[in-house]
Amino acid sequence: MTEEGVDKIGVLSTLSHHCAARLDTLSGHLSENNIENVESFIEGCENLDQGRIDLFVAPSNLVWNDREILAKKGLSIVAALQRNHPFHVLVSSDDTWHLKADAIVLCDEKIIQRQLLRKRGKVPRRLNIRNYSEFDLDSNSGEDLRKAQQMINDGKIDGFIIPRGSYSLTGLNERRHAMLPDAEEMAGMRFVPAPFVDLMLVLSRQGFHPHVIQSWTDNEAKNAWLATKAILERTPKDLHDRIGIHYRQRNVGPILEEAERVKDLFVLETLHDPEGEVDDLLRYEIIVETINGDGTMTTGIERVGPVDKLYVDIHFMMNDWNSILEGIPMSEE
């Protein structure tokens, strides 16, 4: 091992979570490390377990789907890479407001499908939202996304939705429109991201000290993983594919300015103590929402609080979240 305690790093990449590309941007911190690609999540875990690599960087959605492997092999999630674009984009000549009636839009994320329907309203402003598979396309294939872009040019579809990172890596040049969780930036149309977008994790064997890799990992991203994991663990499984989760950390000043500008009384009351004072602690923001099938009913919960109280706050937030879900028949489409 090097003096930093890490010698070999295994990397698993997908189009939407290209961990190798993210590590390339951190090459200044990793010049002494041997970085090698692995072909599958199980291969990376086996290499880590058997000591052939010291760390394993993998997409968070794959870690979540195969999390029982970590428990069986005694592996731990010790850090995460900084998130650059934790949202999806609409690739289209028109933005989400100006898509024509019955426009054909490809999207595999149920929560985003429903968010689109929510703001588009009733006929004739409805969209024709289709899955990629209906056109024999795979949203995780760069070649297929380039085919989808050509289909826009040929007039066969009007747009498609992918993670922002996939757009860059595929080399697309059609116009893109960010789908952000900030309603003010989106002219009132808020898109709470699907879980795990642009979130990449660092795994190790037990006993590894995260401070060793602190220079090239990100605490906010690690907290985003912990918050997402806690929310999904305590949300009924049948809602997992139609739940949006937004997490970020900000200094109190920008949050306060934004809340005052949009007259957000909930946030203003949260930030001020009983004497009306505001401290300078770093704050987290969490938004969780789910939407029924035709976009007519949204159920959500939001929290703002000091980062150092995140874990306690999530526990109480999830108690409230499940109480809300029990009182609203979201399963009745």
Can you tell me about this structure?
The protein folds into three domains: 8-82 and 198-217, D-Maltodextrin-Binding Protein, domain 2 (3-Layer(aba) Sandwich); 88-179, D-Maltodextrin-Binding Protein, domain 2 (3-Layer(aba) Sandwich); 231-327, no CATH class. Helices cover 33% and strands 21% of the residues. The chain has 333 residues and is of the alpha/beta class. It has helices at residues 19-24, 41-49, 60-65, 67-73, 110-120, 142-153, 164-170, 219-233, 252-262, 265-271, 310-327; strands at residues 8-11, 34-37, 55-59, 75-80, 88-91, 104-106, 128-130, 159-163, 176-179, 200-205, 243-250, 283-291, 298-306. The termini are far apart. Helix 8 (219-233) runs parallel beside helix 11 and helix 9 runs antiparallel to helix 10 (265-271). The model has no long low-confidence stretch (mean pLDDT 89).
In short:
It is built from 11 helices and 13 strands. The protein has 333 residues and is α/β, with parallel strands linked by helices.
